């Protein structure tokens, strides 16, 4: 028995496994901010990544442009046909916008859930082991980016800010598996809206799962899905994607819709971090103290 | 200058992995197949085989920590896996001869070990619900093919570099 404890390597291995479990437990804990050594390291490497990824991106964009040139003629033809429709849409949007502001003035209602302030950022890194889908962007706390803000590309929602350091931030994509990553969304079905939660991602099909839709909701293929703004963090009406399929859940009490995301989760160069215009409710304010006393 | 060459190369590979993932199309080996670049561990293993064993494990520890903090935000996974794989390699090299083909195969084995270890850890902490068969076909095989290409390209330059490094340590 004493020989067992004298085996130095075995002791080192056991101690390091204990440390490993402790460290993983510590980092899995739902923490608001990273510790300062982590933030410092991330910022420093972010600086190097920024310096490297910029010239690399220029080269990549150049080759992409050359490829684009080859399809220009075909694309131009297609776009011309769409242009007429666009002009009509634009005038209608103008009119609706004006209507909306006037009506708001009459109602004296200033802020809306859909108001937001976008901040441009460039992707400087991506997690190479593709278990955790994380991006690193080149804006941080000093540009006003804070955890839990929504992140979008021009095509739709891609994720949220997981943590922010002084000069860089980490974005968690919708495609990463994290049970705490839930987004309140709604399906636009004509007059009605059906609400649900985006929970999880089907990696094989490349589709998002929109769960907890009421069982009597008549969801159809091709309907648009947008954020609802009811989660308290994201603004309203950021596009997410389109419904592809609807299935009842395992108990038949609710429905689950498969959503084809509008944005590509791989080819991401530039993103916008969205700061919600409306006030975020504080958790403490939402808990009614008087009720608790009863 | 000589002193900083090795950390600089490793840092370059560390950042290069992330740029590689960003620029290559996601479906390099067909749809649903994920190929993960493991260039950093490959170079670390060449360092342990041809350079210094001690330095291999220490750099493994350092870059494992850096990898965890910068890319994953869960400290512990690679901090543990990098050094332990480097250590296993030192033990393996004692019983095997160090010609370049053998070394390449062993490095590839190390990459497979790392990938399987990372899968097990992520499975334990519920960051993935992939079963083992799916992991083998959709992740391990494409990853090994990608890294085999890298190892074949880089084996000889790494051998030269790390043997020189070992010499400079002995002086």
TrEMBL record, chain A:
UniProt GO BP: regulation of cell shape
Pfam family, one: MreC
InterPro entries tied to this protein: Cell/Rod_1, Cell/Rod_MreC_2, MreC, MreC_beta-barrel_core
Keywords of the record: Cell shape, Coiled coil
Keyword Coiled coil included in the entry's annotation: yes
One annotated Gene Ontology cellular component of this protein: plasma membrane
Domain Rod shape-determining protein MreC beta-barrel core: 123-275
Purpose of the protein: Involved in formation and maintenance of cell shape.
Name of this protein: Cell shape-determining protein MreC
Organism: Cytobacillus oceanisediminis
Lineage: Bacteria, Bacillati, Bacillota, Bacilli, Bacillales
TrEMBL record, chain B:
Record membrane topology: Multi-pass membrane protein
GO biological process, one term: regulation of cell shape
Keywords of this entry: Cell membrane, Cell shape, Membrane, Transmembrane, Transmembrane helix
Superkingdom of the organism of origin: Bacteria
Localization, UniProt: Cell membrane
Main location: membrane
One Pfam family in the UniProt entry: MreD
InterPro entries xrefs: Cell_shape_determining_MreD (IPR007227)
A Gene Ontology cellular-component term: plasma membrane
NCBIfam families according to UniProt: shape_MreD (TIGR03426)
Listed name of the protein: Rod shape-determining protein MreD
Organism: Cytobacillus oceanisediminis
């Amino acid at each position: 028995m004493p020989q067992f404890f004298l085996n130095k390597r075995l002791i080192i291995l056991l101690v390091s496994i204990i440390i490993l479990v402790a460290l993983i437990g510590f980092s899995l804990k739902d923490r608001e901010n990273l510790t300062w050594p982590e933030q410092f390291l991330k910022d420093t490497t972010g600086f190097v990544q920024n310096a490297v990824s910029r010239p690399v991106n220029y080269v990549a964009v150049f080759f992409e442009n050359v490829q684009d040139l080859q399809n220009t003629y075909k694309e131009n033809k297609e776009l011309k046909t769409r242009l007429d429709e666009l002009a009509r849409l634009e005038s209608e949007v103008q009119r609706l916008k004006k209507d909306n502001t006037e009506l708001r003035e009459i109602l004296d209602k200033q802020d809306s859930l859909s108001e937001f302030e976008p901040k441009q950022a460039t992707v400087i890194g991506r997690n190479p082991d593709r278990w955790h889908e994380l991006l690193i962007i080149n804006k941080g706390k000093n540009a006003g980016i804070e955890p839990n803000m929504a992140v979008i590309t021009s095509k739709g929602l891609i994720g949220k800010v997981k943590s922010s350091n002084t000069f860089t931030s980490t974005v968690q994509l919708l495609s990463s598996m994290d049970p705490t990553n839930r987004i309140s969304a709604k399906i636009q079905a004509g007059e009605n809206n059906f609400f649900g939660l985006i929970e999880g991602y089907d990696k094989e099909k490349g589709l998002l799962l929109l769960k907890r839709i009421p069982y009597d909701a008549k969801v159809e293929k091709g309907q648009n899905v947008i954020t609802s703004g009811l989660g308290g963090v994201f603004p309203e009406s950021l596009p997410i994607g389109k419904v592809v399929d609807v299935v009842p859940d395992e108990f038949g009490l609710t429905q689950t819709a498969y959503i084809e995301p509008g944005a590509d989760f791989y080819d991401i160069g530039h993103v916008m971090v969205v700061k919600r215009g409306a006030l975020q409710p504080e958790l403490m304010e939402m808990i009614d103290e008087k009720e608790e006393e009863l | 200058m000589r002193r900083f060459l090795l950390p600089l190369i490793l840092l370059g590979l560390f950042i290069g992995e992330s740029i590689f993932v960003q620029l290559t199309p996601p479906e390099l080996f067909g749809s649903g197949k994920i190929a993960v670049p493991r260039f950093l561990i490959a170079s670390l293993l060449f360092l342990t085989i041809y350079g210094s064993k001690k330095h291999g494990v220490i750099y493994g520890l350092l870059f494992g920590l850096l990898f965890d903090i910068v890319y994953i935000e869960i400290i512990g996974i690679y901090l543990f896996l990098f050094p332990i794989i480097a250590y296993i390699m030192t033990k393996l090299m004692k019983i095997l001869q160090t010609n370049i083909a053998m070394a390449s195969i062993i490095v590839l084995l190390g990459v497979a070990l790392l990938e399987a270890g990372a899968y097990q850890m992520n499975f334990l902490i519920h960051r993935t619900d992939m079963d083992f068969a799916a992991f083998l076909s959709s992740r391990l095989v494409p990853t090994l093919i990608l890294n085999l290409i890298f190892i074949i390209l880089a084996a000889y330059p790494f051998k030269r570099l790390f043997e020189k490094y070992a010499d400079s340590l002995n002086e």
